[in-house]
């Protein structure tokens, strides 16, 4: 039986471990037949899992807090990328040198539901409130909107991806990292499953396969790159090569492991920002598969 | 009477919707019950109203421009053979390129204000209006055209003036019913342009609000916005439909007579 | 007096004549068609039709023989067949000098009766001559209906509007296709008189199915018959038009026309 | 001839496009030059073809279903007054709710795969077809309807059969030109449905490809996909237009005659 | 002989009569209208029209007097005005027993001539009686045009198709609105004979503007005139129809009709 895994977005170096597990036959070794589907909207996959239309989905930790607060039956079962990737990016040669310069500026974002919270936290120390800036949903045209000068900064840009992209286009960017600007650290990419189906034995095998793939990736970055582009020729370009390298240090080496305190801390942050009403016990939405 | 009927329809729908959510025990994120939506509508009234205004303006301006451009294009295309031969394929192509496939680019070119949404409504509305009107203009029966040409020949030879008069007094009146048909379609699809525009880049509007609600799994707010959008679109449609009926009395007459006769 | 009846009254005040080319010499014309073919079927051969300047020429013929087609060729509604010739007595082209009344009334459905009469002026961008239109409406007995749409008119009333519209134009050449066919005898009688008066001095081709009408109005009468059709020699009844149809001399011509209609064409 | 004209148009456009990018020195992410796009088209040919196939199937199935449902609805709505009174507002509402505002929900209900995209094309296509056809059906001149009713009265009384025959022999033939107009609009906007569907939830198709290319700032790939989509849509439109002309010869005749006469 | 001419030939073989209600007694009817008002304008008052069973009743009257409206009320195309009565001699409703020919031809523009004749059968879901249709087409001289669309026909040819279509129906009551108005004298003469033969034994209301036609075909002749219009006493020419119009007795009636048309109605 096929295990359907919804990616968070199109295939990119963030998914390297999954691709390698597939190409290297690690999934097969664990008795898994995995089908990976890239969605068009990153907000869909968890909902589809909650609705029972897919087995696993890649999502973001902040989203998970929002979703369980809204009653979606989801649980995190593994971590893909254990640090935030999200960052606030401006043009390196532009007028913004510090976050304090953002007052009265336009900030583009791709709606994920929690950008305002992160921005609020990042800007508060500089005495800037959300009313002092203009937020513009630019959907997924993050770097183009910045490059074309339609916005002064973007939030939601991935430091491993958008930064490289801008550099290649000849407009290098400057990133401000949320975890350095007052936002608690969190897991950028996690795997969620429907909380009613946690006894599916394939999930555990899947997480094990993931760990194996991560080890291979860390040990053999060159070969991993070749495996990565083997069946995704369209990814074989400068951008992905550089993004691949930038992403390498960020993969969770122990995908199954859960730092409950970290989750709790972030939930508290979300509550303080008014995004969720109550702080649920961590084990209601994140577990380590036994 | 008509209002009553609409109210009953709406009531029935809500009932079906309610019982659907109740019977299937659907979770809120799949389909919130009408009550929950009503609640969201009430508690977020200000927010929704504010965003609805943005969208309304986008729709109205887009509709207006779409109608004007559509009608002018149809007349030009029908009046000048070269225009038709060279421009018409472009027109189709402009449709074939789904506006919102280039929407992200439009936003890059035009910024994140009203402009790209209006351009998108315009692009979407433009086509049905043009095709409808053009069809009507081309269908004018030749006998009338012949007669008109004859009548004009005895005047001084002023090509442009004659063409204008031909359109004003013969072709356009003949094509009005087809134009009306096109305008009806346009009115119904006008909201699409605005919403797509908001989707690819905006800082307010119902589409923007829906995206937010969707991302935060606030399905109730999303449905509330959707409801407001639908009501807005329905009102727009019926207003325009009504206006068209008033503007084309000789067609209305026909239908009235007809229904009178059938009722025998 | 009821408006309906005003068509039936002898006319006292003439239509104000604002004709631009008043006094211009009438133009005659000659049409030669080698043959007229529709969908491979030859309708007419060797037609040679002359319209004398300032005269009313009547054309009769069996249904489907090609009368309306000739009219449409003259009006350039149909492309002239190959090897056809159209010459005018003054050598100028016919274009722009024709008034035409179709066999169907061709009223504009959305326009009022008055607007239907004014359409020519409007199309040309001239000031609509409402006075003339109202006078004509009075003559055809439809004053009361000036603001009615064609929908609300009877068949005969529509035809009268179409007639009035063709009389609105002051073109030197007038082509009329069965202009009185939907009218009762009395109305027809009065409108024939109106037409005779208003068309005086103009060159007219009038298609009709009523031999009496041809005898009343025609300076020259042609019968088109046979298959393919050929034109009879012209009949030229004596006397000024409109003639009195009870005249005995006309009765003889009447039989002559009927004979030709019945299919023994006298070659032209 | 026509082909030549189209080629020239296309050539001209490409030239303008090229000179635009060259003159304004636009960066690739704003507008790639045609050459770059051609290159992308060539190097990604396989990828594009694969995704184009998905989209084509979605469009065709959506178009087919949209036409069938649209035509059936129009007939039902025009034939049964109650249907019109109760259902028509719903129909407008269904349009007013921009399909892709509910697209995320559709994906939730129907999952990924063809189904939601086809539903979306269908929703988008359905409306112009229905409105066009309905307009035509309602515009049948009462004189003919009266005559038909009279002719039917002398037969046995079989309501359904009579209604069917009335539609088959009178109303539908009269409404065909309007239907054709609706179908033309539908053919032109059919791609929108598929693309929107892909945009909201898909794992293949040209829309999906474009979205991803856009996000990756592979503007060249995006334009290449757009080009393929446009060509596909144009072909579809012209095929359908041609088909309609063949199917309605008495209208074609009129136009031919007309142009013949005008050419005098 | 050319197809065009076959209408002009005396008929040898009669139309196969496949009438379902052959031999059923003819139905007469009586229509009483207190008044007929359009847009606040009273067209008719106190109409009392009787159609005798199996007879042809002709109705004449000035243009716009209300003849077609009466026909349409009988055919239920117009809602019957208040306080109007319609009774049949056999007491059954008229519905389903009417054949109707409109003043406009109402041909279906997309259908061929043959299909236009068969539309009744098709609409009823009966097997199209192609044989009868072809026989009728032959009678009206349009055999050759069976596959032509109405566009390609002349005005008179269209009217003949419409006539043939109304004769396709075998309804006991036939309503005809100026069925021969667009035809030349000869064709008209022959088609009148055809109609007289095919309508024998049926109850017919025939509107015409041609007094000779009424005298030739009418068992009973009414003139409607005045404003508001009133019906004249019936004229009942002697002799079997179709009568010879050159008969002297008819000439007297002709003047009588003209007098009444001219507006001196003899109250009924
Ligand atoms: N739909 C309508 N609305 C308003 N008035 C109408 C309508 N139909 C007919 N009339 C009026 O009713 C009167 C009678 O019309 P009708 O068609 O019965 O005349 P008719 O006697 O048949 O004339 P004709 O010999 O010209 O055909 C006319 O004055 C006409 O204007
Ligand atoms: N567009 C056309 N296509 C094919 N045949 C046509 C067309 N127009 C006319 N005809 C044919 O040409 C012939 C002459 O038609 P026309 O209208 O000139 O007749 P007519 O003499 O005016 O007859 P009527 O007295 O019945 O009006 C007819 O046989 C007709 O079928
Ligand atoms: Mg004719
Ligand atoms: Mg009448």
From TrEMBL, chains B, D:
The record's listing under InterPro entries reads: MetI-like, MetI-like_sf
Q: One GO BP annotation here? A: transmembrane transport
**Membrane-spanning residues:** 59-80, 87-112, 118-137, 166-183, 189-209, 221-240
Where does the record place the ABC transmembrane type-1 domain?
52-240
Where is it localised? Cell membrane
**Recorded topology in the membrane:** Multi-pass membrane protein
Got a GO cellular component term for this one?
plasma membrane
Classification via SUPFAM superfamilies: MetI-like
Key word Magnesium present: no
Coiled-coil residues:
none
Superkingdom field = Bacteria
Keyword line: Cell membrane, Membrane, Transmembrane, Transmembrane helix, Transport
Similarity comment:
Belongs to the binding-protein-dependent transport system permease family.
User: Would you tell me the protein name for this molecule?
Assistant: ABC transporter permease subunit
Q: Which organism is it from?
A: Sneathiella chungangensis
UniProtKB/TrEMBL annotation, chains C, E:
Q: What InterPro entries does the database record attribute to this sequence?
A: AAA+_ATPase, ABC_transporter-like_ATP-bd, ABC_transporter-like_CS, ABC_transporter_ATP-bind, P-loop_NTPase
SMART domains hit by this protein: AAA
Q: Does the keyword Transport apply?
A: yes
Q: Which residues does the UniProt record annotate as the domain ABC transporter?
A: 29-253
**Which residue intervals make up region (Disordered)?**
1-24
Q: Which residues form a coiled coil?
A: none
Q: Could you name the domain of life of the organism this protein comes from?
A: Bacteria
| Molecular functions (GO terms) | ATP binding; ATP hydrolysis activity
PANTHER family reported for this sequence: ALIPHATIC SULFONATES IMPORT ATP-BINDING PROTEIN SSUB 2, TAURINE IMPORT ATP-BINDING PROTEIN-RELATED
What family is reported? Belongs to the ABC transporter superfamily.
- What's the name of the protein? ATP-binding cassette domain-containing protein
Species assigned in the record: Sneathiella chungangensis
